[in-house]
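User: Round two. Same drill as before: sequence, then structure, for each protein.

Assistant: Same drill it is. First protein:
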Amino acid sequence: MAYIIYNPDSEKTQISRIAENDLDKAKYPGMLSETITTEEFNFLKNGTKKIAGHNGTNYIWEDTVKSSENSGIVFPDQSFLDTHISILIKNIKVFTESQGAEGHVDQNFWNTYISFLESFDTSAVTYPINTSWEKYCEDNSINYKSLLQLP
């Protein structure tokens, strides 16, 4: 079972984090959760869909990348990808450089991911990239996690 994690004072559509399983869910004490399918978890993890609403029973999903010509280009050139990777590194370092990261079960993964991002050769990529960075990683067998999985 996978989960959407949200703050107790938020609506179900205002997600804070995602958890792939019960063990990951336990990393967010004091937060509320809603069960989602593995497929829905992957929508959020790889950034291909976002939550558009909740009908009281189920989440309503919306594509993040439109299929119409040009609007589906997420990274038209290297500078866009470089900027995105810099933002990822900055956000991940907020966790890895915090006191809470020391000894955390996910610390090694996030440190390894930062090292990968810092050494990734964006000039070797064929542009444009018409999908999210996370989907690009999935499609190219790169070990990754979404920022929504940060502790």
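Second protein:
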Amino acid sequence: MLPERSKRYASPDGEVSRLTLASAWQLVLMALLVLTLLVLIFPHKALVDSLYQHQQLDELTLSYVQNLYRTEPDNADVALLLARTQRDALKLPQLQDTLWRLVQHGSPRQQREARQLLRSTYTQKLAQAPGQDQRAEARDQLLELLRLVSRDVLSSTEAQALAELAFDLNQPELGLLFFEQLPLEQTAARWEQIGDLTLGRGQYILAAKYFMKARERADTQVQARRLFQKGIRTLMQASLFGPALQAAQQHVGDLAQDRETLRFLVRTAQAAGQPALAARYARQLVFVVEPTGHP
């Protein structure tokens, strides 16, 4: 027997009527069923969390993420995922508002990643900007981000990175705010390292403060003496004689009966043009008790 289609005949205009496989509503229903199955098999949040583990996405996955962001522009995790994987190719104008909102109101993880994305984007823009206006804009954006973040509680690593960035932007007071967030249990060596970093940028007063912080956390008298003298010398080298003598009186502490420290203070007062103060330190030196018990 002939197939059902072969039994049909052509109409007067020469066309053969075609069989209808499925109606429009049936196609829509099938599409909905497929989407439902995909959602059930690949839960939305689980899929995004899985993609978060990858620094690079293939073209198909990236296309999926882009389409997902178009349909859910307020989805913070999708915006972060797209911004992170497309940072070099994306100008981020459509994501920037989202990132700034997350810096202020996101979860701790979202805040941390949004800060990192904005910071790296603006830093790259500042380094590669072709004109002065573009560089000024990038610098202003970085400073705005730093001022906003300076009120947040940061990890030690992030606080130090932002402090160094603030110093690079010639904003030492802002850098100090980040350094002050470092845990108080930072060692003397750590504070001395920060002081050296600050001194290398020509911030003598701030460097001296950090050396004195290190002096307060010294484990031995020898270490405390060295750090104390380093802080005072830092101010003296910048011809800041008044602040140097003031810092000496404020931070001498238990070194007030240390012979080497008093000799150092005598020489410092003489170099600062304060003979009366030098004489006072000299009188203290005369009556310091030696380890043998004799003055």
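The chain is about 70% helix and 0% strand.

User: Perfect.
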